[in-house]
Structures are given as C-alpha cells and as structure tokens.
Amino acid sequence: LLGIPSLPETFFLPVFFIFLLFYLLILMGNALILVAVVAEPSLHKPMYFFLINLSTLDILFTTTTVPKMLSLFLLGDRFLSFSSCLLQMYLFQSFTCSEAFILVVMAYDRYVAICHPLHYTLIMTRELCTQMLGGALGLALFPSLQLTALIFTLPFCGYRQEINHFLCDVPPVLRLACAAIRVHQAVLYVVSILVLTIPFLLICVSYVFITCAILSIRSAEGRHQAFSTCSSHLTVVLLQYGCCALAYLHPQSSSSADEDRQFALVYTFITPLLNPLIYTLRNKDVKGALEKSAQYQRDT
C-alpha cells in the first residue's frame, strides 16, 4: 500500500494521531448509541433497533480499514498479503452495502410510523424487523462476494504490486490488472447503481408519502415533531449515498488516484463520525437516554 505518496514522511506521525483521534471518536460515538439504546427500555423500538445495527456497522466498517492505515503511518507497515487484500475488500464492500440497505429499512419504518401510526405496532413486529434486517444483510453480502470474486480472477503481473491507495478498494486494485478491464468496470458500475440508485429511489418514494402525510397534519407542533423524527435519518441518507456515489459512480477513466483517496477518506472517517453526532444532536430521545445514563453514573 503506497498510502499517500505526495505526503512527506515528516507528516506521517501527525497524520497518524489525526486518524487515531477520528477512529477513537467513531468508536466512542457509536458505542454510546449502542449503550444508550440497550440500557434504556423506552428506546426498545424498531427505529432504534435499526439504529444500533447501523452503529455496529459503522464500527465494523472503520475497523476493517483504519488499523492498517494507522500501522502504515506509524510503523511504515505497507504490506498486505493477497488473501488479506481480498478479505479487506470483501468486508469493506459488504459493510458499505449493508448500511445502504439498512437505511432503506429505516425509511420504511418511518413511513409506517407517520403514514400508518395506528397500525405501527401491528406492522413493525419483532419478527418483521428481524427478517428485514436479515434481508438487508443478505442482499449486501451477495453482490459484495460476486464483485470481489470477479476482481480477483483478473491476472496481476508480478509477485508484488503497489496499490496507489491506503486500502484495498476496487478502483485502485482494478488498475493493477494485466488484462482488459472494461467488462469489470461495467460490472462495478452496474453493482454500484443497484446498491446505491435503487435503494435511494425507494427512500425518495417513501419520503414523498411521508411528506404528504406530514403536510396533512393540521397542528404546527405535530408537523414539527413529525419532521424532526425524519430529519436525522434523511441527513444520514444524503451523507451516506452522496459519498458513495462520488466514490463509485464517477467515471474511472477521468479520475485520479488522489481523487479516489479523497473520496475514501470522506466515507471512511467523516460519515461514520457524523452518523452518531446527527442522531444524538437531533434526536431528543437518544439525548435523554445518554443524559439519564450519565446521571446514573454520577449518582453511583
């Protein structure tokens, strides 16, 4: 792994501490959400069930890539075996796809809560939530496996290869192939469109119905409360899908390795860090649970 070739070695240590700080903040922020939801009985609802799974995926997602990045900048450990690179790519793609599909499930949960409030508990049962979560994870694992297997069937010339990146992502590994990659690039675009565009359109459709239902509420307070319950999720959706679209749907022929690294830094660090901040700052139930937990710790 070449890391960031344009970065002088004198900056490696400061970059290591910056990345370490971001990583610890990501772990702490998402862990706080997990603790708050599990410890507070009032948050044992479908919405927060999906939220803790999203936080878990954020932790796994960053843990797949960041520790290797830290060792690269601190110890100069640039080497990955072929199987390690394959595993990192597969896990990275799997967790990214899983988050995309879970956001669709969360949009459906908000649709039922606002458009069919009287039937919410009848529709969003524990069994259905578990099935939707399992379906989201299952759908994510299949395209990730197919894409990773397709990439690693390509011939790579030489015993050692230099990946112009700080992780084994699809675009930089594709550039190392000693064969025509047009078909593989086309498959990457198709998978990206299926994983990003279709779920995003489903979320947009659900929010069209949600918006119509909210606008039909007569009370201004009721409309504000309904909008506030959806604003956190919608903000995370735009952040997640926007970053992934920039990374995988822009033309690879016109992109540079520097652009790929910039996009990767955003969805590796910024998105997992902002997700818990958005849900804690814009969700009074989660904030209340965290405050109650902090008060309990002080009392004991």
What is the compact description of this entry?
This protein is mainly alpha-helical.
**What is the N-to-C order of secondary-structure elements (H for helix, E for strand)?**
HHHHHHHHHH
Largest sheet, in brief, is:
none
User: Over the alpha carbons, how many angstroms does the gyration radius reach?
Assistant: 21 Å
Q: Into which percent range does the helicity of residues fall?
A: over 70%
Strand content: under 5%
Low-confidence stretches: none
Mean pLDDT: 82
Helix/strand/pairing category? mainly alpha
Number of distinct helices: 10
Number of distinct beta strands = 0
Shape: globular
Through-space gap between termini: 48 Å
Topology (SSEs and partners):
Layout: H1 12-39, H2 46-75, H3 82-115, H4 120-123, H5 126-151, H6 170-174, H7 182-215, H8 220-248, H9 257-281, H10 284-299
What does this structure look like?
With 300 residues, the chain is mainly alpha-helical. 77% of the residues lie in helices and 0% in strands. The protein has ten helices and no strands. The chain has helices at residues 12-39, 46-75, 82-115, 120-123, 126-151, 170-174, 182-215, 220-248, 257-281, 284-299. The termini are far apart. The mean pLDDT is 82.
